[in-house]
Structures
1.
Amino acid sequence: MGFLLLAAMIGIPIIEIAVFIQAGSLIGLWPTLAVVVLTAIVGTALLRIQGFAVINRVQNTLAAGQVPVAEVFDGLCLLVAGALLLTPGFVTDGVGLLLFVPPFRAVLRTWAGRHLVAKGNVRVWSTGQPPAGGTVIDGEAEDVSTPSGDEPRVTRDPPRTGPREPGPDRE
């Protein structure tokens, strides 16, 4: 991972400089600089518009009692897109503009989800309901492990009978 980050930190500026030289030779110095400034202005406007839309979707999803995983991912993509569009360069601007396109973000989200599930033990139930046929066990837990690394002791409370009375953390 460290090598990949180092390669990006060296490679991206070199690619940007090469593209700047090519663009400057094709359209001139001032139009090249104008395009860079224009993409920063357009990126800021797009970030504001789409950012508010994502915030509204997060609020609606939370109001529906669901976890806003897709909306948080979209917000992260918009944050990266805004940073890339404010960075001078044509390649970073292209990637930043691509992150503003919702279908591209959906494809990227699907790929990232599959990658996370393939690499790790990730399971998400975004409906707030357990999987079909699952059992829900309501209970309380207490950490009884010892800092010395010994085996934790297990204590069991007797099963409750009758109706449960509401407590300070129950309705």
Note: Residues 10-119 form one domain.
2.
Amino acid sequence: MTGRKRMTWFLVAILCIALFGVFSFSAADSSLAVTSNEKTLKVVNGQTATLHIGVTNDGSAEMKDITVQIDLPYKWMIQSMDPGTVSLLPGESGEFTVVLAVPASENASTHTLNVSCTSGELTSEIINIPVAVVTNPVFGYAILGCIILMIAGTVVYFRRNVRR
């Protein structure tokens, strides 16, 4: 390799390192913080649950088109999200109201929702929100009513049909 080619490669390498440093510095200068008003969530199967997700722009640049990402259990759906996206100036905060639809077929169990916010290539840290699913109390009352009817029917049957 000639001296001129070495010098060219050396300058290209320095330029690449400088550009990489600028891009990594600007990415480190941007950050999103996510919070939730609900530390734990309790929901009845077949009904909806409402989450209030807060997001803060802790960086020094404006963040545009910030959205919420939620890892949902199987068959759960996001029924609505208000607003769909937000844009925040440095130091500003915003809030998303997310309504989740829990299927009626969901058994009583505990799940964890992993929630984060994204703005372009930038993703916030993930927060975990535990969700306890309980069965609908109407089913318990219906079962109790059936048991009472069976006992009453048995008593009436034996009073009328028992020989003395």
Note: The radius of gyration is 29 Å.
3.
Amino acid sequence: MSPFRIGFGYDIHKLVEKRPLILGGVELPHHKGLLGHSDADCLSHAIADALLGAAGLPDIGHFFPDDNPTYKDINSQEILKTVLKEIKKSQLTIVNIDTTILAEKPKLAPYFEQMKATIANSLELTVYQIGIKATTTEQIGPIGLEEAIAAYAVCLLEKRP
């Protein structure tokens, strides 16, 4: 049996007024933010689901149900820290994570290094183990119409001997 496990995650949140825009644990200047029970950081949520999936564990909603008031406005970096504990319990280590954010605006590239540093800190990784990219949907669909932001994540885990 291979010591490697691959996981895939996806998340999308609606953009609304009067909410901060948080991606990868970084608050970005923007006139709208993401709506959700937590801080609605779709990048961190996609990463969490990729890691949990690779470990064969239930998804983020199992650990942080959106009908539990305990998790109202929870910082998604705390979610990642909890996921890391679950990964370690499963005798797995994170090899790398790669992500893509889908957003029409704002421009995200200037914030990638800060996002990587924040996520790396939460998951006890180096910034070199994390890839972050962004693309638009060419003004197509809810993302292109600036109604939502989404993120994809893939990860590689390795079973510890």
Note: The chain has five helices and seven strands.
4.
Amino acid sequence: MKKIFITIVPIVLVIVIIIIIANKNPKIEVTKEIENTNSLQSTTSAVSPEPQMPDTSVSATSKEVSFTVNGGNFYFKPNIIKAKLGDVVSLKFKNDEGFHNLIIDEFKVATQNIKSGAEETITFTASKKGSFEYYCSVGTHRQMGMKGTLIVE
């Protein structure tokens, strides 16, 4: 009987330890799952159910902005101009010397090729955010540095 007792007691102890360990880990995991679910609920309750896309439409507060850009052999001054999204941009190109034009592809606007002393105004809505190159397309003027940047914020 003593032999059986010595054999059974360690086995029972091992089983009890395994049960205790097995019960402790699920409780910890369940607690963690509840905490994660609660934090997820509190996080998602502040988030709108539909993803929001950035508003790129022209706002009712659009304003007209005017710029004068002078051009010559092989420059634009200024070579950086800035507008806000939705602004109506009026851009006067004055040709100081030579034979040039001014083009902004992304807004599909361009002046005619004009000779020295002439000027032309183009008007468009800054309907996209970003940096857009304006340039002269006559000959290799663009490659020779006759370009600038319109920044729409």
Note: The chain is about 30% helix and 35% strand.
